[in-house]
Amino acid sequence: MSLTPLYIDMDGRRVLIVGSGTVGRRRAERFLKAGAEVAVIGTSEIEGTIPAREDDLEYWVDWADLIVAASPDGDLNERVTELAGGKLINRADDPSRGNVVVPATFNIGEVSVSIFTGTKSPLMARYLRERIQEAISPQDLLMIEVQDRARRILMGEAGDHRKRRRILYEISEDPWVREMIEGGDLDGAVERAEIIIRERLGCCR
C-alpha cells in the first residue's frame, strides 16, 4: 500500500458499513458525526443509520461513496471487496486488502490528530495518542485562537503571504502575547496581536 494522510469532507457522502460489531459501530458513529449518510448491513441496528440487507449487497455497494468491510465473516468482507472494484474501501480486518485506512483519531479543541503505525502496532498507536494528548496544553489551544484571529485580519490587510507569515511568527514569539496566554487572557493576547499587526503594516485598524 502507498498511503498518504488526507482529511475528506464527508458531509452528504454515502458510507456503507458491513458489520455492526464494535468496529462497525465505531466507524458508523464516526462518519455520522462527520455528516455522512450511513447504511449498515449487520445483525444489530445503529441509531441514525439506514438498515440495509445483505441480500441487496450489490445495490448498497453501488450506492456508497465509501465502504467499510468490518464483518467477522471474512468471506463476506472479500465479497464486498470484489464488488467494490475501484471504489474507496476500508478493510477493518485486513487494511492491506483495502485502499483506505481509518486511523486512530482524537480532538483537543480545534486540534485534530490522527495516528497510524502502518498496521504494525495498534497498541502503540494508543500509547502515542496518550503522549500527544499530554503534550498539547491549554496554552497551545489559546495560541491557535490568537493566530486564527490575527490571520483573518492579515488576509484582508496584507497581500504578501510571506509578510503575513513573518508577522504571525512574530506574534507567536512575542513575550507579551505569551505572558497573556499563560495567564489565560485571550482577549489581551488578541489585542496585543492587533497592535503588532498595526505596527508592522503601518495601518490604524
Give a brief rundown of this model.
The protein is of the alpha/beta class and 205 residues long.
SSE string: EHEEHEHEEEHHHHH
Q: Using only CA atoms, what is the Rg?
A: 23 Å
Alpha-beta classification? alpha/beta
Number of strands: 7
Strand-residue proportion: 15-25%
Number of helices: 8
Question: Helical proportion?
Answer: 40-55%
Rough outline: elongated
* Chain-averaged pLDDT: 94
Q: What's the main sheet like?
A: 5 strands, parallel
Describe this structure in words.
The chain has eight helices and seven strands. Helix 5 packs antiparallel against helix 6 and helix 7 packs antiparallel against helix 8. It is 49% helix and 15% strand.
SSE layout and pairings?
Layout: E1 14-18, H1 22-33, E2 37-41, E3 50-52, H2 57-63, E4 66-69, H3 74-84, E5 88-91, E6 104-108, E7 111-115, H4 122-135, H5 138-157, H6 161-173, H7 175-182, H8 186-201
Parallel strand pairs: 1-2, 1-4, 2-3, 4-5
Antiparallel strand pairs: 6-7
Helix pairs in contact: 5-6, 5-8, 7-8
Throw out a few tags for this protein.
alpha/beta; 5-stranded parallel beta sheet; 15% strand; 205 residues
